[in-house]
Design brief:
The complex is a heterodimer.
Chain A: E1 5-7, E2 10-13, E3 19-24, E4 31-37, E5 43-50, E6 53-57, E7 65-68, E8 75-79, E9 88-95, E10 108-109, E11 113-117
Chain B: E1 9-13, E2 18-23, E3 32-38, E4 45-50, E5 55-56, E6 61-64, E7 70-75, E8 84-91, E9 106-111
Parallel strand pairs in B: 1-9
Antiparallel strand pairs in B: 2-7, 3-4, 3-8, 5-6, 6-7, 8-9
Classes of the chains: A mainly beta, B mainly beta.
Chain lengths: 118, 112
């Protein structure tokens, strides 16, 4: 079964450093997402991405965050200057949701990257 | 975002059916009902989704009330591997670009 692949599985970084979390979505999917989950808390939406631009972003996704699809397969989340409160599991997801047709599809999530900011 | 209400926790015995309820009284006509589960230390996993009709797949069944204000996820024979947090989520479909809003979900415990 197709998978969403995330690397690395665990990243430790010093406060103030930049990190890039990487994801390979399912190849024929069109929509890509990042979510995060702070330990013991709910899964929170960060951003959705379609047609090489951000479709929607949450309040969490401030100027310190950016996303990119640098090539035909990777989807990245960059945090420019990490803070202690950025420590969380970050999940990438993809979907072949087709908006205009009003159809709906399930979403496939990756296993996550555990980011620890020290 | 339309809201869902689920019990905080439920328990089941192995090999017995499990019915996980979800209330969504403010659902709109275009909202799809999604169910995901999250096993410990893993990402959410898609289980099933539907709009109006009941749905079956290899993992589960989804029973949707006629007025769509509630739904039930049915695991036909629970196994220990089904122990997880189950999330019922409304997806606004056409205009939401697929953002999912997770609640606290239902913690399912399966006893051997």
């Amino acid at each position: 079964e197709p998978e969403v692949t995330q690397t690395p599985s665990h990243q430790v970084t010093q406060m103030g450093q930049e990190v890039i979390l990487r994801c390979v979505p399912i190849s024929n999917h069109l929509y890509f997402y990042w979510y995060r989950q702070i330990l013991g808390q709910k899964v929170e939406f960060l951003v959705s991405f379609y047609n090489n631009e951000i479709s929607e972003k949450s309040e969490i996704f401030d100027d310190q965050f950016s996303v990119e699809r640098p090539d035909g397969s990777n989807f990245t989340l960059k945090i420019r200057s990490t803070k202690l409160e950025d420590s969380a599991m970050y999940f990438c997801a993809s979907s072949d949701w087709q908006g205009a047709t009003r159809e709906d599809y399930g979403y496939t999530f990756g296993s996550g990257t555990r980011l620890t900011v020290v | 975002d339309a809201k869902t209400t689920q019990p905080n926790s439920m328990e089941s015995n192995e090999e017995e059916p499990v019915h996980l309820p979800c209330n969504h009284s403010t659902i709109s006509g275009t909202d799809y009902i999604h169910w995901y589960r999250q096993l410990p230390s893993q990402g959410p996993e898609y289980v099933i989704h539907g709009l109006t009709s009941n749905v079956n797949n290899r993992m589960a069944s989804l029973a949707i009330a006629e007025d769509r204000k509630s739904s039930t996820l049915i695991l036909h024979r629970a196994t220990l591997r089904d122990a997880a947090v189950y999330y019922c989520i409304l997806n606004a479909g056409g205009t939401s670009y697929g953002k999912l809003t997770f609640g606290q979900g239902t913690i399912l415990t399966v006893h051997p």
